[in-house]
Amino acid sequence: MNNLISIEEVDRDGIEAILDRAESFAEVGRRDIKKVPTLRGRTVVTLFYESSTRTSSSFELAAKRLSADLVSVKSAGSSVDKGESLKDTVATLTAYDPAAIVIRHPYAGAAQMVAGWTGAAVVNAGDGKHEHPSQALLDVYTLRRRLGALDGKKIWIVGDVLHSRVARSNLIAFQLMGAEVTLCGPPTLIPRGIEELGCNVTHSLDGIEEADVVYVLRMQFERMEGKFVPSLREYAANYQVDTRLLGPRQLLMHPGPVNRGVEISGEAIDSPQSLVTEQVAAGLVVRMAILYELLAGKPERPTALGEGPAAEAAAPTIGQPA
Length: 322
Ligand code: CP
Prior knowledge:
CATH superfamily of the largest domain: Aspartate/ornithine carbamoyltransferase
Order of helices and strands: HEHEHEHEHEHEEEHEHHH
Number of strands: 9
Number of domains: 2
Bound molecules: phosphoric acid mono(formamide)ester
Distance between the termini: 26 Å
CATH topology of the largest domain: Rossmann fold
Radius of gyration: 20 Å
Strand content: 5-15%
Largest sheet: 5 strands, parallel
CATH architecture of the largest domain: 3-Layer(aba) Sandwich
Shape: globular
Strand order of the largest sheet: 7-6-5-8-9
Structural class: alpha/beta
């Protein structure tokens, strides 16, 4: 694995290997000195063009726990505010010879484009509504610890699937690990034809009692143009997950941030069935494992690609920004 742009780049054995590695890093986290020297002398850049609490903090801490030098850039307050392009920003940061660049950007395809402009390993920390592969890995890790193998497990993903990069990556990962996935939400918030990926689709919470896992998504207002539901009150009345819906054996997940009282009740998110805090903790060790998988034991790559054949070989293969 040279980059992590899409969860589709990782097969089932590859996912299991990353999760096994993450288990070993969980043990490191219980030591007095929670650091390993694996990436000493290497540099990790995190470059975030969108808001983040969990993904940015966990990648930063993961790099530090692996003893890497960390450069953390948020577009707000950087020279992006002065009009610097993504390409020039990547070229600037590539001058520090980073081993990896972790990028979040509002445009689908941005991470793939960055991989064409730098020789550093690129990790997609969320590109528009396209993909969020490290979220999918940490969610599979969280469930594997609770349930063991996911084969035959029923997972319902409820909410704004249309605008969710988490839904896309998690659907692929959950199915790859053998789970049966049902997508639930209003017709306006479920991509047309998504059943072709092998999942079930429903527009009602009826039947949710069959789910082993209920995975709730927030409404992604920042990606919406126009109105997708008549009102939040009506949406909550039809799709809010609350404790009255959940049986005692069902597990509840949410990638965060949560809008309490909209897609999920406060009581549900604070209930013993909620894995939200476990998901956040998993984010640290899984992101350590991702950086390890990409960088450990591999020779440093020349990071400045310039305009030559290497740059052409690494050119984007997926769509331009949406
Ligand atoms: N789940 C997730 O990506 O959270 P942040 O936006 O806080 O990183």
